[in-house]
Design goal:
The complex is a heterodimer of chains A (379) and B (449). Chain A has helices at residues 37-44, 54-75, 80-83; strands at residues 9-13, 20-28, 31-36, 97-102, 108-113, 119-124, 128-133, 138-144, 152-155, 162-165, 170-171, 176-177, 182-187, 193-198, 202-207, 213-218, 224-229, 237-242, 247-251, 257-261, 268-273, 279-284, 289-293, 298-303, 312-317, 323-328, 333-337, 343-347, 354-359, 366-370, 374-378. Chain A is mainly beta and 379 residues long. Classes of the chains: A mainly beta (379), B mainly alpha (449). Chain A: Residues 54-81 form a coiled coil.
């Protein structure tokens, strides 16, 4: 009865491309072969039909995309700012730098808040990971990681541990193993699992204690640069964004890609859920930030300005979801009014690119990390 | 008793349901059972089923889930109390959450049947086939290849075996891809194709706007933080007034609990208050089950089986001390799934319980004396206005607060105390587990700090 094809997943070297990665077992002529998901897709889609060429298929794809957009457009001519028409305009915001955290010797690439609302962890290009008490400005702990470009760091929910990863392809004492750099990592609702995104095009969920791969997520066709877990009561989905300009929503239980959005024209550097979990925002090298509604299944706002021409590297929402803080490569942070689509404020202060912005867990402050070796706390 | 264990017992050559060989068209099929025999067996076996109707329901569930399939009217997934013929499904095709019946597999199955004999597909199957052909078109060569391989392999079998295998496979797909207008017992899983009609878009955008309006006053960037924002004044009263176990919470905090059940449960202080209310109503088991399910979902891989066992004994087994009242279908699915526990095995039950709490208990809580009481007692701190000089001074006396590790240890201790007080749990095991965790933390602190 086992000549029925079914998919299973193990980890090891792919029999087609040789790269170690999560594998799928396929049966061909009653022989089991192990391919990574890229190679399975390639094999399944191999061969052009007669009369087709790559160029003609591309054209067909583009025309289908256009048709899809047209159809979507016919049904949805409602924009977010129209629905938010009756909402009062924001007053002037008086946000200033309240703390400057100095101590890193090189570009600060990532930071994350602790649930206690005052501590935070940051990682830098010099391989150092520092735990700070942002309130008292004291450095509580410093860890040296044996790799440069520590691109991702996360604080565990209990506050008892931190995770980090980067160019060494690992996340924290080899809990997670990717075949390319680790671009993002986050703990789930407990200290026991870590979700990682990687330059190898996949995301993965790991059991911290055993280092076991619990689930892998395939679907991006290029480096995945960012991910974020949904804050909703079900807590079973997450969104990822990458160099293929796509933002994908995944079901953590099955590994399936539930929804996909492709409206950016360049790499997506960061994705972040709206506080209610029903929408998310993305920041891209195309100098725009976009807002997507999951139930409506489409983009509902674009945050852009003629004067903003540098790529956006990071975004986060304020507690109510009214404000979107976005860090750019022109050293500034723009504060957007999410509902009206206008820019409410600009925060100046950093002397190099802003690599990460995060609002504190109780919404009282914003922390930004920058290539100018410092972190700033704004309120 | 799980469905799987029951089905295995039913096939026991000595004490199980008696089967016989039957002729189907031209072929002889071995080990065929009648609906009447199945029902009689179940009624005798399950002494808890005092009525025939309950045995009927249980037997129909076995058919609906695909453990037993009818061999004549294959689309009618019910157990008939007469001479209708059935067979036990091969364990390979038993429903399991480990892998979902994929569209690719279904496409291969339909293609295989087409290869066998064109025009054999029913109308709904043809519709599925056309749809799959369109959206899986890029894989179609692969699908045809797999279907051909499988077809060749089955041709080499004996006719009787082939007929049986066909029946089994057909039954599997009737359960997993039910014909139009029939109800499938299996979960449909997350909806992938969302139809964005204008009404729905408006609805969903309004929800986003509504969220902002609800939380507006709680956003420190939009409304003043009382007594003051620590980052602005260097005074941390705001945090000390909002600690985890503060006796009297602030009015803002209590208000936030009323926004949604999710908010109430996420703020552990709110969850405590909710528990006080539940205790008065003698309905704490739903929340306790929800918490246990969360622990299973987010726990270590190695702790899965022991947690699953405890949960079964405490909440799901017949006569369990904290038995939760969920519908029979969910209970059946959950209990069966617990035989091979994995972190999402309680998903259906947990969602069911959460919805119950959300739609009913939560609203009763908001109207209850418990909530009104805490609303009255809640504090409204006065705004603290510091001069720039005072703000400077405050900066000098900033305290480091309590370290999160200490807070976490305190939380674990409180949980252990609460567990020892409320349910018949092995306290010794929990205490020694805590000791081990404490040891681990101390080691961690030594190496890191």
């Amino acid at each position: 009865m086992c000549d029925q094809t079914f998919m299973a997943a193990t980890f090891g070297p792919c029999e087609s491309c040789g790269k170690p990665s999560p594998l799928m077992n396929i049966y061909i002529k009653n022989e089991a072969i192990n391919y990574c998901s890229f190679c399975v897709e390639l094999m399944a889609c191999q061969g052009l039909q007669s009369g087709e060429s790559v160029a003609s298929l591309k054209r067909e794809c583009e025309s289908l995309k256009k048709k899809l957009e047209e159809e979507r457009g016919k049904l949805n001519d409602v924009e977010l700012h129209q629905v938010a028409d009756k909402i009062e305009v924001l007053g002037a915001l008086a946000i200033k730098t309240r703390r400057v955290l100095k101590g890193h010797g090189n570009k600060v690439l990532c930071m994350d808040w602790c649930k206690d609302k005052r501590r935070l962890v940051s990682s830098s290009q010099d391989g150092k990971v520092i735990v700070w008490d942002g309130f008292t400005l004291s450095k509580e702990n410093g860890i040296s990681v044996p790799c440069t470009w520590v691109m991702a760091c996360a604080y565990a929910p209990t506050g008892c541990a931190v995770a980090c990863g980067g160019l060494d392809n690992k996340c924290s004492k080899a809990v997670a193993m990717h075949t390319n750099y680790v671009s993002g990592c986050t703990f789930t609702n407990s200290d026991n699992q870590i979700l990682t995104s990687s330059g190898d095009g996949s995301c993965a969920l790991w059991d911290v204690e055993s280092g076991q791969l619990l689930q892998s997520f395939h679907g991006h066709t290029a480096d995945v640069l960012s991910l974020d877990l949904a804050p909703s009561e079900t807590g079973n989905t997450f969104v990822s964004g990458g160099c293929d300009k796509k933002a994908n929503v995944w079901d953590m239980r099955s590994g399936q890609n539930i929804q996909s959005f492709e409206s950016h024209v360049s790499d997506i550097n960061c994705v972040k859920y709206y506080p209610s979990g029903d929408a998310f925002a993305s920041a891209s090298d195309d100098a725009t930030c976009r807002f997507y509604d999951l139930r409506a299944d489409r983009e509902v706002a674009v945050y852009q300005k003629d004067s903003v021409i540098f790529g956006a590297s990071t975004v986060d929402f304020s507690l109510s979801g009214r404000l979107l803080f976005a860090g750019y490569n022109d050293y500034t942070i723009n504060v957007w009014d999410v509902l009206k689509g206008t820019r409410s404020s600009i925060l100046f202060g950093h002397e190099n690119r802003v690599s990460r912005v995060r609002v504190s867990p109780d919404g009282t402050a914003l922390c930004s990390a920058s290539w100018d070796h410092t972190l700033r706390i704004w309120a | 008793m799980s469905m799987e264990a029951l089905v295995v017992e039913m096939q026991d050559p000595k004490g199980g349901v008696k089967g016989s060989e039957q002729k189907l068209n031209v072929t002889s099929i071995p080990y065929v059972i009648t609906g009447k025999d199945v029902l009689t067996w179940i009624t005798n076996k399950m002494k808890t089923f005092s009525l025939c109707a309950e045995a009927q329901v249980m037997a129909t569930m076995l058919v609906a889930y695909g453990y037993i399939y009818p061999i004549q009217n294959h689309k009618k997934l019910v157990m008939c109390n007469d001479g209708t013929l059935y067979r036990f499904q091969t364990p390979y095709f038993w429903p399991t959450e480990k892998w979902v019946a994929e569209d690719t597999d279904y496409a291969i199955y339909l293609t295989k049947r087409n290869i066998r004999k064109k025009g054999m597909l029913e109308a709904y199957e043809q519709a599925h086939y056309n749809h799959l052909n369109k959206w899986l078109n890029h894989k179609w060569d692969f699908i045809v290849m797999q279907a051909t391989e499988q077809y060749k392999a089955t041709k080499e079998r004996k006719k009787a075996d082939r007929v049986v295998l066909d029946c089994q496979e057909r039954a599997y797909w009737v359960v997993n891809r039910p014909p139009r207008r029939t109800h499938s017992a299996l979960d449909d899983g997350p909806e992938r194709l969302i139809d964005p009609c204008a009404d729905q878009v408006c609805c969903s955008l309004s929800r986003l706007v509504k969220y902002v309006t609800t939380y507006k006053n709680h956003d420190a960037f939009l409304a003043p933080c009382l007594p003051s924002n620590p980052w602005l004044t260097n005074n941390d009263n705001y945090w000390t007034l909002n600690t985890r176990r503060v006796e009297t919470p602030t009015k803002m905090r209590v208000e936030r609990w009323s926004f949604s059940l999710f908010e109430l449960l996420t703020d552990l202080r709110g969850r405590d208050d909710f528990k006080i209310f539940l205790k008065k109503e003698f309905s704490g088991e739903n929340l306790a089950f929800w918490e246990a399910a969360e622990e299973l979902k987010w726990g270590t891989a190695s702790s899965m089986s022991s947690k699953a066992e405890t949960i079964f004994k405490t909440f799901l087994a017949p006569g369990a001390p904290r038995w939760i009242n969920i519908d029979g279908r969910t209970m059946g699915m959950t209990v069966k799934g617990l035989e091979h526990p994995h972190r999402y095995v309680l998903e259906a039950a947990q969602t069911h319980v959460f919805m119950l709490m959300k739609k009913d208990t939560f609203f009763r809580y908001l109207k209850s004396p418990t909530y009104k009481d805490i609303q009255k007692k809640a504090l409204s701190p006065e705004a603290q206005n510091f001069s720039p000089a005072q703000i400077e001074q405050n900066a000098q006396s900033c305290s480091p607060g309590i370290h999160p590790i200490i807070l976490w240890q305190q939380e674990m201790e409180e949980n252990a105390k609460a567990a020892a007080a409320s349910a018949p749990v092995d306290v010794k095991a929990m205490m020694s587990k805590m000791d081990r965790k404490n040891k681990h933390i101390l080691e961690f602190m030594h190496t890191r700090f």
